[in-house]
From TrEMBL:
Record-annotated Polyphosphate kinase-2-related domain positions: 28-252
Keywords tagged on the record: Kinase, Transferase
Entry keyword annotation includes Kinase: yes
A molecular function GO annotation: kinase activity
Record flagged with keyword Cell membrane: no
Pfam families, per the entry: PPK2
Protein known as: Polyphosphate kinase 2 family protein
Amino acid sequence: MKTQQYLVKPGKAVKLSAWNTDDDGSLDKADAPPLLTQMQQELAHWQERLHAESKQALLVVLQARDAAGKDGVVKNVIAAFNPNGVSVSNFKVPTEEEKAHDFLWRVHARAPRHGLIGVFNRSHYEDVLVTRVYDMIDSKTAERRLAQIRNFEELLADSGTRIVKIYLHISPDEQKQRLQDRLDDPEKHWKFNPGDLKDREKWDKFTAAYEDALSTSTEVAPWYVVPADRKWYRDLVISQVLLDTLKDMNPQYPEITFDPSKITIK
């Protein structure tokens, strides 16, 4: 699969209306399971090499509107990795302790160490999205924070962490259907948050905030706008992006300091 069409080129302004939400890559849904299984096996292989080398780390940032499928990506894509080598962090409303520090303080502490894969299921970008839409910060503060985020990501990259940022691009109609599904199915009631409807009412304001956030796509921390209306295709695209990234990182097994042929286990 080719994923370059979903890459936000550094320095380019983003208009989300120009990006398709229901792309299927000219694939059939029936073709997805074997493709996903194959990529999951490859992802597990490259994760093992990353862990064995322990000189690099991978950080996956997931951002999306409600019901776009962040948890589904963790379940269907990130689950390919050995859980011993993965940390998943979810940044919600900051605690009093966290608010007493700079907005990146709590985030930096959860960055993956070398050899590991870190997943931010919501991330430091919440501090230039929700806070901006609900007028907790002004535009100048948002611009300053976006610049600080770029510097933060450059710091991580300089320290050996590869960063991949993924925006799950869902349409208003598809979000409506998924929210309704949560209301209609008693087993999904726990997923429904009435507060999500407030965010939905501010769709255009969130769009503008996301477009500015996506402008932080850089060579060392690129953004991908992944079509999310079709869950099966969403998972394939993200799996391919992560697989391409790990292959490009090319972690190596460490050299051994002994000759296996001269060792006898009695």
